[in-house]
Amino acid sequence: MNGFIKLIVIPAMALMAFSSKAKTPFQEICRVKNTAFKAGEKVTMTVYYAVAGVYLHGGTATFTNTLEILNNKPVYHIVGEGTTNPSYDLIFKVRDRYETYIDTATMQPLKFIRNVNEGGYKKYENVTFNKTANTAITNDGVYKVPTCVQDVVSAVFYARNVEFQNLQVNDKIAFSMFLDDEVYNMYIRFLGRETIKTKYGKFRTIKFKPLLIKGTIFEGGEQMTVWVTDDENRVPVRIESPISVGKVKIDMMGHENLRYPLSSLIRRRD
């Protein structure tokens, strides 16, 4: 599970299979209505790596959203792109592009594309979701999937539409995700609300912890913390986590065409 963009998209959802031994409430939501974003939205995030206690600018990730037609259905075409800075290219060059096509009526993905180049490792993946047969057709075969399965990018936008109002601290919200020819049963653990200061400014936020699958970047377990705006946009504004080579901090640094005013912003940083 390597990938530069995954530093953004995977934490926004949570990446470890749900354990039936969990003692906290566990909600499963199949379909959600999009009330959080609109076509034309663009969000830019900056990745900082900790070196000797100092955070250095390591790269940039952007998410853009356009309204298109796929198989005669209106879809949100969402593209996530990640690049390392030139100074980091000598150490570990990354050029990643992730795409999802989400049915506007159901918020379910119809197509997913991953085209990554990470330190010499290259992979191209093209997945088509057949919602009638509940299958995922990939480069490698046809796989049975749950009715309301998400891909790694559509899951971000699914999560932005989750209602947190009735949740208690440590409640979990479940969903399934298809990645690398496997289905993962996922959840988000809600941690409450918190006011934080980021590189962009001071925000009122909703806080939660993803549980991560152990991989080449993340160690796994409840190591990561994610904060999203406590307003109707639910935009991720900070992600923090230890990684296999140190620590990473990711801050939202720019946005365009949000659906609502960014009312959670208390003060913009000078």
Structural features, described:
- By secondary structure, this protein is mainly beta.
- The protein has one domain.
- The N terminus is likely disordered.
Give a short summary of the structure.
With 270 residues, the chain is mainly β. It has helices at residues 6-9, 86-92, 154-159; strands spanning 26-28, 42-51, 54-70, 73-84, 94-103, 109-118, 121-130, 135-137, 142-144, 149-150, 172-179, 182-197, 201-210, 225-229, 236-243, 246-256, 265-268. 6% of the residues lie in helices and 53% in strands.
Notable traits:
270 residues; mainly beta; 17-stranded mixed sheet; 6% helix; disordered N terminus
Radius of gyration: 18 Å
Number of beta-strand segments? 17
Order of SSEs = HEEEEHEEEEEEHEEEEEEE
The number of helical segments is 3
Point out poorly predicted stretches: 1-28, 213-222
Number of domains: 1
Largest sheet: 17 strands, mixed
Task: Tell me the layout of helices and strands.
Blueprint: H1 6-9, E1 26-28, E2 42-51, E3 54-70, E4 73-84, H2 86-92, E5 94-103, E6 109-118, E7 121-130, E8 135-137, E9 142-144, E10 149-150, H3 154-159, E11 172-179, E12 182-197, E13 201-210, E14 225-229, E15 236-243, E16 246-256, E17 265-268
Parallel strand pairs: 1-11, 10-11
Antiparallel strand pairs: 2-3, 2-16, 3-4, 4-5, 5-6, 6-7, 7-8, 8-9, 11-12, 12-13, 13-14, 13-17, 14-15, 15-16
